[in-house]
Amino acid sequence: MIIKSLIVNNFRVFRGVHEIDLAPRTEKKIESAKPIILFGGLNGAGKTSILSAVRVALYGRIAFGRGLSTPEYQKELDALIHRGVGVSDNKSSIELVFNHSHNGIESEYKVTRAWERGKRDKLTLEQNSKELTQLNYDQCQSFLTELIPTGIADLFFFDGEKIAELAEDESGQVLQTAVRRLLGIDVVERLRSDLAIYLKRHHAAAMPANIQTQIAKLDKARLNAEHEAVELTNQASLSRAKIDLVAKEIDNAESELSSRGGAWASSREQEKAKQLTLDAERKQLEKTVRSEIEGDLPFSFAPKTLQKLLTQLNEEKATKQANSFNKELTAFMTELTWKLNAEMSDATTAIETIGKCLHDWESNQHNTEIKLDISDRELSQIEAQINVQSPVSFNRFDKARQRLAEVEEDIAALSVNIARAPEQEQLEIQLNNVKALTSKRTKAILEHKEKTEAAKRKYREAIELARKIQKLHDKHKVAFNAEASLSNAQNAHIMLADFSEKLTAVRVKQLEAEFIKSYQKLARKDDLKLSARINTTTFDVELIDDKKHAISRKALSAGEKQIYAISILEALGKTSGKKLPIIIDTPLGRLDSKHRDKLIEHYFPEASHQVIILSTDTEIDESYFNNTLFKNEISHAFEIQFDGATKSSSLKRGISGNRNQKLHWR
Fold first, then answer.
1. Which among 660, 647, 562 has a CA at the least distance from the CA of 617?
2. Residue 14: beta bridge partners?
3. How many other CB atoms sit within 10 Å of the CB of residue 202?
4. What pLDDT score does 481 carry?
5. How far is it, in rounded angstroms, from Cα 561 to Cα 583?
6. Are 180 and 481 in contact (CB under 8 A)?
7. pLDDT tens column, 528-567
8. Exposed/middle/buried for residue 38 (C-beta within 10 Å: 0-12, 13-18, 19+)
């Protein structure tokens, strides 16, 4: 599996849409991908949000823990919606794109999980860019869970701080459960328990009468408790079966409702209201279009011709101005000639010279033929209509035309939907049936819960009585001559104990070897003499010193516990045979410098084919970033920057910094 990208929208500290490229880059020289994608940022910047987004996208409700009710799950989802400054969109979504081989065929999957505040989340799944529409929500979720089982994923997607709790579990229950489930050796233990019960009954024959009476009384009470527990368990199973049966009936009823147009009917009134709104908008848009056509719009249809018209009109204007001037000048010259003749005895030469100059000036004037002969006011009005008003009119017309086409298309689609929808009265029977079945299922769930709790109480009572009986057996055990069957049972019980021990030793050998290999490469030099073994009684992993003494985990430092836990996870992961990416949040928080060096050099570069590290600015500084073994395996890096003004984070590509300082990203 390779995670290619993660897109979050209004998720936790991330405001708006953020697309994160997670696909490892390929080194051309060696033609292999660098596995490490590094994220850095301050506490609270959003590192854990990336891990949470992957888990929520894949597992939905299960990402928050099993047994979560629908209202509780909704509350958890609502808490993930971004609440930064100025955000009013109460929506959030996650898209996860990854390659995964299923049944030997590799495909690209895209998971999209989206939700609104107070509403159920929506889940869609695409395979090779094609949405798997045949799968409903539950089927999509089941498909994802089958691709990457949550029990396996917990070994690969983990918080470096919280995973250390595995080493701090003094009861060993967490690891014991994981190992038993992985190795599957509980069958022999159940057989030994059955034989032990058989032997206890025969031991009772040689005990004093008063002890036998006491044991018989306790055993009768135990049998009654077991009988009641079994009866209650059967009733709980019937309730469970009833829940499943009613659930199928609900599915069938909802399918019937859907086939009769229930999905369309539920939104019929909304569709009608929307259609009325769109009809009103269409009328207004048509009015706008007609108004523009009747106004200045036609001037925008022939721009070249209208520009020629403006040229002609301006030239005519100039010609008319020239003609008017010539007329005035001619009158002036007539008056001037008369005055010159009257006042000068010889004015002929001056008059001829002036006349020649005027004639030459008139010859150089460009006169246009007056065809349209409009006034200057009319010319200004035409110029405004062509150059100013018509472009504005065209923009209004074009927007109205485009929106009108969209509205008409929407009205047509709504008409189809409304035509599909039957009247509410036609679906009344189906709707009432679904409501009745839902109520029936709720009662069955409550009954199942009540019977299950009662059965648990009776089982606890039976176990306590069995312990009391065992104490009496241990206290008053005496020798007796066993019959052949008893002898065989005793021999079988001993043989099974030996067989269980040897079987366990064989089955845990690989796990033990993987743990030792992982721990020794991650531990400090002082600890390299340490070995390890898996306790076949508790299935706990024990560290062994050079004198073959077990080391108490209580004596381990916080960092050593984290190394211990990571070694267990790596061993379990390799034993599981799953090839999945590793996402680790706050990987170095509890570690000293030597342990950090080990993880930097020997864990991250080798842990998987894709390792996504979510680090604080104090965990991985430039000294680690420049470590050859680590740096050469880094595909690319991001910085998560938190903006206190908007209460939101953003991602930037790149990295820089100084030794012993936090990393600066660019």
1. 660
2. 11, 649
3. 15
4. 39
5. 19
6. no
7. 566 777 776 666 677 777 777 777 767 777 777 778 878 8
8. buried
